[in-house]
Amino acid sequence: MDPSREFMRDVKRVVVKVGTAVVTRPDGKLALGRLGAVCEQVKELLQEGIEVIFVTSGAVGVGRQKLRHQRMMNSSFVDLQRPQSDLDGKACAAVGQSGLMALYDHLFDLLDVACAQLLVTDNDFKNPAFREQLLDTCHTLIGLRVVPVFNENDAISTRKAPYKDSTGIFWDNDSLAALLALELKADLLILLSDVEGLYTGPPSDPKSKLIHTYLKEKHDDMVTFGEKSRVGRGGMTAKVYAAWNAASAGIPVVITSGFGSKGLQRVLCGEKIGTLFHKDANRWVALKETGAREMAVAARNASRRLQALSTAERRQALLDVADALEANEALIRAENDADLEIAHQAKTSPSLIGRLTIKQGKITALANSIRVLADMKEPVGKILQRTEVAEGLVLEKTTCPLGVVLVIFESRPDALVQIASLAIRSGNGLLLKGGKEAMRSNAILHKVITDALPKSVGPALIGLVTTREEIPDLLKLDDTIDLVIPRGSNQLVSQIKESTKIPVLGHADGVCHIYVDKAADVDKAQRIIMDSKLDYPAACNAMETLLVHEALVEDGRLEKLVFALQSAGVSLYGGPRAVEKLRLPKAANFHTEYSALACTVEIVEDENAAIDHIHEFGSAHTDCIVTEDNDIAEKFLQSVDSAAIFRNASTRFCDGARFGLGAEVGISTSRIHARGPVGVEGLLTTRWLLRGDGHLVSGDRGVVYTHRNLSNEESFKSLANGDASCNGSAH
């Protein structure tokens, strides 16, 4: 549930208003399927114990369609050639109202829901006795589980042109719905429209953006309205005016599309759909939001301030972050529990819930890994090469931060901590976009970390992107963001690569293999296999495919391995040979990352067949051989083209912390820049520093190039071991 929508938990009475554009199709006829879907949603709300008051438009539109048809049927061919006068709106309302209500009565009756028609005019509300009777009648109907269906009685309205005149206590069904929400003390008003909500401009304009929470001080001058409703009176302008009035009086309002099958349920579940109007909107919307470019520029500027700090100061910043995490563990776990509750309610898969969970002891482990990172040798400003170009002209190749890194990661809150700590250690600015399932966990972790940063650096060093809509804008900033790291599926990585000119460091699927050779110690193999699969099944470095030499079938060793896995609750799926020999269900695809207690098993002829299988179906992540034959082991290690290749060790060792990197930003399966667990070094690039004393090229005349390597000289060693700092960025 989005923080701005948490009040939805307490909603007991809701007014739902359906606009004419929802009731009718573009040709003016009734949209029967759409109305049926809305009525079904109303029934579901009633079953959940929520009281519903219904307000409908559409009578004038339906009546106009009927009268046009009637006029055509009663006209001669000559009459039809003459210009046709406009139909009277009141007559249209009178004709359309009965048909519209008959339809609602039929649709609700099919769902075993009773409804009642209530026609009102604005003059009625001037009478206190009428208002009192209206309340009594509504309360009686609601108590009987009858849905009151309201509509303005345009046929007898005293306004000369009710579809144009906006005077009176209310002037259309949007303002009527707002008035009824106040009179009946509703907890929420939902205005269903033919668009997703309020946009900054006409919805058809690609530059227009959906406003999730309306703040009058910010959006009043920003919004430009398109054409009015094709069939109704006021379109979005009328809805915004009615919504603002209701919200100012204390009734929250959501404008959203009436075209979806579960729109009402999604609103009441607290999803961030449509546009919210709320008297406390300023709690969730800043008067001036930081745009994508501003966020990236702020991160770059903060990274330069971070780089200007000494090694000791950068180290202390990391230690402060570690201490802050431990000090706020109770708060972090409470927010994580809230995310988990929502995930369970949404029937999220067990593997995703496993990644989402911050387990007991995890915060302490994360804090300790940050302390290890802090105690590492200074990576920034390290001299990699020192060369005397000519006498008195010395060139140095040094490490420095990339600049600004955008990381889009999955629903693992601990990933945020690791990535942020690596950014601090490497001197980079950072933009983070985590999975929506971990929204609250990510928000509190981000706050704890940025609050602990030195005030001279500022919290802008690490920006948290909260909505998916911001990602396209960020991916356009190839002049400001230096690297994108998407952690997720191949599909996500491919989408990112196709959408940006920024270099992408791809972290794709983790289809990790273990090949058990004929020369394997079966007990050792069993321990390695069980650890690789059971230690953390949802991890990207968990074993997903077990390949075994055919000799293990003949001597019974394979049967022992299969029995161990099945006894531990692992579901096994076979390739063609395993299906035949072991009677296993057939694997849907050899390239499958189960992220759960399941794996694929296949029998291969030898190590060459295993290597070919890994190259064809693997993800170049982590692959392992279990064997006591040194020659076969070395052949496997040198031949398999993956980021990490192991011998006689669990695939779970492929991890930045376990490799001694302190933490990891991800495990890259790319071949350029960084590969395998990406630690601090993967977030660094190089630059050249040249120190001279008036040296000139001048056509290379008079320059004697020595190109002497100074890397091993004592002068280089003293520089390399000193208190290095990198004052500035590579960009």
TrEMBL record:
Pfam families: AA_kinase, Aldedh. It catalyses: L-glutamate + ATP = L-glutamyl 5-phosphate + ADP; L-glutamate 5-semialdehyde + phosphate + NADP(+) = L-glutamyl 5-phosphate + NADPH + H(+). One of its GO terms (molecular function) is glutamate 5-kinase activity. One of its GO terms (biological process) is L-proline biosynthetic process. Pathway: Amino-acid biosynthesis; L-proline biosynthesis; L-glutamate 5-semialdehyde from L-glutamate: step 1/2; Amino-acid biosynthesis; L-proline biosynthesis; L-glutamate 5-semialdehyde from L-glutamate: step 2/2. Gene3D superfamilies: Acetylglutamate kinase-like, Aldehyde Dehydrogenase, Chain A, domain 1, Aldehyde Dehydrogenase, Chain A, domain 2. Its EC number is 2.7.2.11, 1.2.1.41. Residues 12-257 form the Aspartate/glutamate/uridylate kinase domain. Keywords: Amino-acid biosynthesis, ATP-binding, Kinase, Multifunctional enzyme, NADP, Nucleotide-binding, Oxidoreductase, Proline biosynthesis, Transferase. It comes from the Eukaryota. The keyword Protease does not apply. Residues 289-567 form the Aldehyde dehydrogenase domain. One of its GO terms (cellular component) is cytoplasm. SUPFAM superfamilies: ALDH-like, Carbamate kinase-like. P5CS plays a key role in proline biosynthesis, leading to osmoregulation in plants. In the N-terminal section; belongs to the glutamate 5-kinase family. In the C-terminal section; belongs to the gamma-glutamyl phosphate reductase family. This is Delta-1-pyrroline-5-carboxylate synthase.
